[in-house]
Structure prediction request, 116 residues.
Amino acid sequence: MNAETWGSIGASLAAAGAAVWTARAARRTPKQERRDDFTAITTQQGAAIERLERRDRQREADMEKQRERINDQDAALSYLQRWVGTLVGYIRHAGLEPPPAPPMPDGVRDYLDHIM
Prediction:
């Protein structure tokens, strides 16, 4: 065997060794798989947390609207109570008696106790 043959054998062995080393390096280790799983789970959890935060913000906005509506309704009831009281006073001042109020339902009584 001449030097050229030995050179090609050496080059072939070097190429085979590089291929084996590359294949070994490309193989994923369990640690790498766990790290990738952790990254995927972390990404999914991040998306789920963002979804929950959006829902929470939406519910807080809805609750604020409901609070405003309840406050407006409370103000309207107070206004109506004062207005009816003024009308009753006017009718009595004129020497007349206002008609009797219809019976108040129990559910309404709970809400009107604080203004009557």
